[in-house]
Amino acid sequence: MNDHAVETDGLVKTFGAFTAVDGVTLRVGRGEIFGFLGPNGAGKSTTIRMLCGLLTPTSGSARVGGVDVAADPEEVRRNIGYMSQKFSLYDDLTVEQNIDFYAGMYGVARGMREGRKRYVLEMAGLSERRTALTRTLSGGWKQRLALGCAILHDPPILFLDEPTSGVDPIARAAFWDLIREMAGTGHTIFVSTHYMDEAEYCHRLALMYRGRIIALGAPARLRAELATHTLVQLDTSAPLDTMRALEKLPGIREVAVFGGGLHVGVDDFESGAAAIRARLGEREIEIRRLEKIQPSLEDVFVALIEAEDRQP
């Protein structure tokens, strides 16, 4: 039996002259939490819709659960769960009525519907809210209900397209607890996000930019790849003037805004710090903090995108 839940080879999707997905090749193992990370417009949602059989690839191939998405999209859709950031719920129905509707849509056998409904209500913590109108729920509770509806038919593979967009941090954390529980029972989770902290929860990540995968691997490995140079936290009295002052300074690789300060990539900490102090001293810019730090996934992503943008 193939150990890959999702396989793509040179997957392409064009809309007229615009290439939304440009030659995506990847393998996702069964039981894996696989993260799709990238900014809006990177091609994440378009890729997921092709994998779900909702869009036909322009070229290349994709198999989900061993089924060719172009040849048999209906079979693919029967064996996956799909949750978009819009949640796809009916606000004028109660929680229970939404679950009943989706049980019918997914073809859950009548003899199993009550048991599956009970499981979903308990899993999502919605048993006490089963008669509430969906429109009265908070974003976090709607999110849990949408996940529950997507897994009513117990699909082995679940696609989550930016499922935590617009949800508060506490609800996001609780939602990820549910995702980890599902992966622990053997489900494959394919999730897209632009939240860097969520990417840390994934077993592996694909960083997507302008329709292409620019990096692929475990979060720790991707962070280690940035270890070819040193990262410095730099806080000054004038961050924007500091960025301009450090541009093209020998030994400085890149400068990026992080919060109220800057992250600066240097070839060597001692010589880099000395060059920074000298240049900012010339400009009379006060240094409030200058210290070596460990790179985050956001640092990795910024460095990779800047490297892509520098290419002709």
Structural class, from helix and strand content? Answer: alpha/beta
- Strand content bin: 25-35%
Cα Rg: 23 Å
Largest sheet data: 6 strands, mixed
- Between the first and last Cα atoms, what is the distance in angstroms? 43 Å
Shape: elongated
Number of strands: 14
Secondary-structure element series: EEEHEEHEHHHEHEHEEHEHEEHEH
Helix residue percentage: 25-40%
Write out the strand line-up for the largest beta sheet, numbering strands in chain order.
Answer: 6-7-8-3-9-10
Overall pLDDT level: 91
Our count of helices gives 11
For this structure, the CATH topology of the largest domain is Rossmann fold
CATH class of the largest domain: Alpha Beta
CATH superfamily of the largest domain: P-loop containing nucleotide triphosphate hydrolases
- Unreliable residue runs: none
Query: Which architecture of the largest domain would the CATH scheme give at its second level?
Result: 3-Layer(aba) Sandwich
How many structural units, i.e. domains?
Answer: 2
